[in-house]
Sequence to fold (278 residues):
Amino acid sequence: MISMQQGLPIVTAQQIVDEAFPYLGRGSRFQTTAYSTNLFISDSDQYDAFHHFELFGRKILWINQVRDDIAGETVTIMPRTIFSYSDDGFDGHIVAHRFASLLCYATHGTYIHPRLWVGIAHPAPATNQPAEKYIGMHYGHDQIDAEIQRLNVDSFTDRRWAALAHYRQATLAETPYYQVLSYWKILELRFNNVRADINQHIDDLYTSRPDLFHYVGTFAGAASQKIRDIRNSSAHFMLDGDTTIQDPDNPDIFNEASKGIFVLRRIAESLIDEPTGW
Fold:
């Protein structure tokens, strides 16, 4: 039984083991990963501690942000996963990061970042890192499963996984400069960095959905050139003779970079959702 005390439930290591062993079974290596995130997955009428995923050819136990007693003090713990892993390359590391990128995208940009991982021989919580963020983004069990099923991740190529990774990097970024560059990399991935194809895609979108470019403001010339100018100013100093000093502390320059975020995010999402061309 999970006990409640002034908010988040108290879930002990033994309770996690009791959930993990029947679901994950026995094996030789299990990795516990702690995530900095405000995501929690639960029914709306109660706070569930666990969610079961089957991804990357394995079962993954998700443990929501809960509390536990550490050295006599009740501490709020980061959300965690437990799953089996192999010694092949960086198997556990890659799974944890791709899992985080998938959850980020499936929940429409929720902040999630693997912070710590520990491997042991049993499906038990090998880390209990104090939480860095408060829970705030709620997804139901069926809701998160439906979003992941919609993406059909078994069909993903390495390039499409890389696109998801850059989408999550944009979410993690706290400055428009790195958001713009991360979204732009998704365009480069999808169109093999062929300039004409990227430009055509942006210009076609502007023709059909000029509303998506509202925050870009007024501009002369092609939409693709305007978005590319925002990208270039985020990546370079003095490109093509431009003497503007890209000073992030200058609000005018900062805001100019911010203008491209909305439409670039919409473009990135539409490309990731498209199953072909990757």
User: Anything to note?
Assistant: The chain has two domains: 3-155, 158-273. The mean pLDDT is 91. The two ends are 46 Å apart (CA to CA).
